[in-house]
Amino acid sequence: MGERIIEPESEIVKAFNEFAIDLYMKTVEGRKGNLVISPITLEIPLIVASVGAGRGTQTQWELMKALKLEKKFTIAVLAKECKTTMQEIKKTKGVKVATRLYISEGLKQIPSFKHISRKMFDYTPKYIDFTNRRLVAQKINHFALSNTQKKLGKIISKEELSGNTKMVIANAIYFRRPWDEEFDKRESFKSPFFVDDRHTIYVDYMCSRTIMKYASIKYLGVRLLELPFKNSDLVMTFILPNNPNGLRDFEQKLSTINIMEAVKYLKPITVTAEIPVFRIESNVNMIEPLKKLGITRIFSPIAQFQEMFDEDHDVMLNNVVQKACIEINEEGDKISTSTAFISHHNRPTASIIRWTTTQQTDHFSCFHPFMFIVRCTRTNLIHFIGRVSFEKEDISYIPEKVYRTSAEKEVQTDNLEDENEASTDEEKGVLNKNLSDGNAVSQIVKEDDDDDIEF
Question: Which intervals of the chain are annotated as region Disordered (predicted)?
Answer without folding.
Answer: 408-433
